[in-house]
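Q: Predict the bound structure with magnesium ion.
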Amino acid sequence: LAKQTGGSHYEFYRSEIGEKKAERLELLKALRRALEQREFVLHYQPQVELATGHIVGVEALLRWQCPERGLVSPEQFIPLAEESGLVVPLGEWVLRKACAQARIWRDTGYPPLRVAVNFSACQFRQKNLVDLVKTVLDENELPPECLEVEITESTLMQDTTASLKTLQELRACGISISLDDFGTGYSSLSYLKRFPVDALKIDRSFVRDIPQDTDDVAINSAIIAMAAKLNIRVIAEGVETLEQLNFLRTEGCAMVQGYYLQRPASAQDLALILKNGRRGDSSY
Ligand code: C2E
Ligand code: MG
Ligand code: MG
Ligand code: MG
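A: Predicted complex:
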């Protein structure tokens, strides 16, 4: 009897795994179709320079407009896209789309913006990445200063020799590199010495509870002070309140990004925001 029960448990377990697998397969199929059918869109979130209140950059953030599932967040499909390798063609689409959009904004006469694009680890490992980036910039007649590549600490750690080479080549062309979600990965400070980056993005988990949480206050102050000494730009992510903004300003954080300033918006909506220039100075 015991054996039988065990057996049925096992069957149950196995069918649950089977279901998960089937679900993933289904999602992957849908993602492949989405790429062909152009179901992806980019939203853009302003990055604001605190000293001037100017929008000096935007981060391109991927959205999937799925006919069956509605608007799907990247958190729900990027991991699978990474595992399956689909993130490589998808990432190329993101890069092309973001640069084409940057061209449109320039042609419209807005002040030059830096567009930040998220690269996943396997994209960063692609041998032809630097050529691709250069080609896309050329095709859109954009100077390299227009582009910022966002990678995470774990991307740097995965294949340090190759990563270092890619990083140096991108920077040699004038493209800037920022370390996303800074402080949440496993990299040590020696990586900052070895891998030359232009900017650190303080992860929003450290920003959420400032200025109340004294540990987070210390972490933010330390990152900002260290970056200043290393001559690295700092962007605080996930700024949702005026209190957070004021704290970051006092600490000397140069740039901020978050819902308090602006939620990610469609290219169309962002054009209106850019047209109106800086968002009411009085609020920050
Ligand atoms: P990320 O690169 O760290 O992007 C910041 C995320 O924080 C975005 O989520 C953004 O909408 C959200 N955010 C911005 N301000 C606030 C705020 O004030 N409060 C809160 N709670 N959240 C805020 P999103 O767009 O859902 O993207 C999630 C992640 O998906 C990104 O994190 C990035 O890792 C990944 N991702 C997005 N687009 C791409 C892409 O084109 N390629 C790759 N490889 N990954 C992408
Ligand atoms: Mg990012
Ligand atoms: Mg981040
Ligand atoms: Mg993230």
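A: Confidence is low (pLDDT under 50) at residues 279-284.
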